[in-house]
Sequence to fold (718 residues):
Amino acid sequence: MKKINTLSVDLGDRSYPIFIGEGLLASSELLAPHIHGDQLFIVTNEVIAPLYLDHLVKKLSLRHTVETLILPDGEIYKNLEVLNTLFDALLSKKFNRSSTLIALGGGVVGDMTGFAAACYLRGVNFIQIPTSLLAQVDSSVGGKTAVNHNLGKNMIGAFYQPECVMVDISLLETLPDREFRAGLAEVIKYGLIADVEFFCWIEKNIEQLLVRDSNALCTAIEKSCSNKAKIVSRDECENDIRAILNLGHTFGHAIETFFSYKSWLHGEAISVGMTMAAKLSSELGLIELADYVRIKELLARCDLPVSKPDEMTAETFLELMSVDKKVIDGNLRLVLLESIGKALVTSNIERDILIKVLQ
Amino acid sequence: MKKINTLSVDLGDRSYPIFIGEGLLASSELLAPHIHGDQLFIVTNEVIAPLYLDHLVKKLSLRHTVETLILPDGEIYKNLEVLNTLFDALLSKKFNRSSTLIALGGGVVGDMTGFAAACYLRGVNFIQIPTSLLAQVDSSVGGKTAVNHNLGKNMIGAFYQPECVMVDISLLETLPDREFRAGLAEVIKYGLIADVEFFCWIEKNIEQLLVRDSNALCTAIEKSCSNKAKIVSRDECENDIRAILNLGHTFGHAIETFFSYKSWLHGEAISVGMTMAAKLSSELGLIELADYVRIKELLARCDLPVSKPDEMTAETFLELMSVDKKVIDGNLRLVLLESIGKALVTSNIERDILIKVLQ
Fold:
């Protein structure tokens, strides 16, 4: 077996490991210590199932009773109605409290499986096997689970930590290019909010990343996960520092909600959102104009969108952003940059400057 | 103001007080330290609303923005679909992370409001103001929240603790007699599982309780809540001792599920369930036949049902009980009595004896 890098999310008795490496799906023994009962329920989607499901089921069936559920693919299915089909399946197959759910898929599968695990019989174990770059560097780590509501993204959910996260970089081989690039937006985010050296490294290595060079990918994923693990360990339930992980997300969620979770990928919306946050930071004199340009250029080199959809006005943004989870007592709070590698959360934003950026 | 008794549920940083007394609804200043943000959302039902809602809204509106939602009354409405109407209301009114939900009602309102609070924006504060005897002695304390699924009761939920519980005994004045008696089943439960002295006290004071003598009620509610608080403090998430709180519930949930949460009240089903558990304990030689008779007689004195519905066979029970949350790796676990005042959880039950009792 090739080298496996193990990171840790330190949360007391809810701590868990992140395994990162190539070909890990073949080494199901990594999962064994994290499966407690006999019953396993693997949730995946119609795109991932034909690629990897049989292989995983075969491995795990040697020791466990395995059932599977294949969801339709896409953010529009991340809702309470589809979540209920998970509960239907779990109950009709009589899954009990000691069973383990496994999320084999991208952010949508991970968020829904995690939330189902949080609620089913008031909580059962679950394991994340993320298959998209975005899920591997971001959504599978940290215990944020949720479904969308037609009035806002990720509005119904729970903080609920997995037993372990298994990041198999080999799974990215089958990831469509557009989704891969969308995942890079979150990779770039970690450089922006917490790690200037990593940001510079991405700038230097962007071509290798875009051709999915496995060494470059390994480094990018490890750096992203270790930055995320550090932040989550300090503030599990986003009372404080964890909010910086949402750089660009308040703007981005508004875009996703406006398009009803169709047409725009999460990473694409976040790319526009981060550009807006950088622009706003520059307008407020927090960062240099040159830094804003540098950020925008790196995102553009990934073929990610860096300007707002024509269909959306400043008013549309303000209306959709007003239900954001970071709003406290009517005050919109935004994550901004005070330098590349350092983020801050603020609610002191002059409306005129905000509207200027939104236009 | 009359005397207020304050109990505490000790759960580290999730500890909270239970206030018990008469006329507490008039003293909203008790709640003030437990409301953190500006926005309050009161959930109640169509029976309670005309009796108490205006009064509470008036008191709380002095200092807060108050919105209300009136749910239909009854266990059949405790489902994901109705839960979603809470989320609709919260989102359309732009309730934020620092808002507080208040459950003004019985077990159904409390369970749904608590679960909504657990999931809305991944968790907001909530307060319990239970209005039924059953909710005052049982469901409002301990943080179990849930909705039903058509394949089983309380299958989707969370352990999520309130900021405080306000038990106003005066609210019981308007409680219909059938519901009051159903609540007594849970009061008797505490005597059976943990407090033989309390059981004897109930036997002696049953007539005063049935006429709702306020001194007798105060004692019964305080004893019930303090027994529950002690057990919950030892085992918040039911990994162990907390399971004894489910005496009679595995049988009882089967009855409720069989009748689709119509026609039988929870306490009535639990009364039959506790009779069955006592009978089974006696058949297994754990308690004397005389103890079983004594338990059955006390329940019968409350006009509670003590024998199974004619429509249900032993097979129906076994099938419905097999999805119970206390099933672990295929083994049905039941709460039984080893004496009046002492319960145990066991999975070593001979099928023949179980079937005999179910017949």
